[in-house]
Amino acid sequence: MMKTDVVIVGAGPAGIFTALEMLRRNTRQKIVIVEKGRSVRNRFCPKAKTGRCMNCKPYCHITTGFSGAGAFSDGKLSLSCEVGGDLPQLLGSDFVQSITDYTDTIYLDFGADTHVEGAEITDEVKEIRKRAIRAGLKLVDCPIRHIGTERAHQLYGDIEQYLLDHGVEIFFDCECNNLILDGNKCLGVTVSLNGAIEEIRAEHTIVATGRRGADWLEKLCAEHNIAHLPGTVDIGVRVEVRNEIMEKVNKVLYESKLIGYPAPFKNKVRTFCQNPGGFVSQENYDNDLAVVNGHSYKEKKSDNTNLAILCSHNFSVPFNQPIEYAQKVGELTNMLGAGHILVQRFGDILDGKRTWEKELVQSNVKPTLPDAVAGDITAAMPYRAMTNIINFIQAMDQVVPGFASYETLLYSPELKFYSNRVKMDERLNTNIEGLHCLGDSSGWTRGLMMASAMGVIMGRILTEAEA
Question: Residue 251: pLDDT above 60?
Answer without folding.
Answer: yes
